[in-house]
Design a protein that fits this description.
This protein is an alpha/beta fold. It is built from three helices and 18 strands. The strands form four sheets. An eight-stranded parallel β-sheet has the order 1-3-5-8-11-13-15-17, with helices on one face. Strands 2-4-6-9 form a four-stranded parallel β-sheet, with no helix packed on it. It has a four-stranded parallel β-sheet with strand order 12-14-16-18, with no helix packed on it.
Amino acid sequence: MKEETLGKIFEFIKEKSKQNLPLFWKLKNDIPLTEEDLTFKGDLNLENSKITSLPDGLKVEGDLMLTFSEISSLPDDLQVGGHLNIIGCDAINSLPKGLKVGDSIQLSPKRIVSIGEGLFVGGDLNLFNSQIKSLPQGVKIGGELILSFTKIETLPKGLIVKGGLDIAGTPLEKYSNDELRKMVKPGVIKGPIIRD
């Protein structure tokens, strides 16, 4: 079906039933968003889309799937209730300030060079072999934090990792487990520290 025809159908539905246009349609066609549009109930699947940006203030109550999309960056304070999948989003090289993800983040770690303050991940975060050299203040990980083969030399005070911490092949291996746990105080590493 042609986009012009779809546009007419959506406009008809909007006028007759007083419903908003679908968020994907608005993003794709640069149609202004309402406050109501910024909270998306359920999963938002933008895989393989040509959309290059997401709006500030976006809250997705389910999963946000951006796999192989043309998204170039994520907005600060993005909230995702489920998983965030940014595998194949080659232009994304940082995780924004205030990002909150209820479950795990799936990403292409080699592309990630920085993480903004206040990152919360309810599940696992795998940064294996990424270009990251440091973690900011306020990072909270509900599952495992995999830092193996990164160049991270120290851990920030206040870091919270409820699962295991994998530091294999990093400069962090020079520290004992006790030293690493003291390094993050008043934060905590609850799970095992993995070195191989």
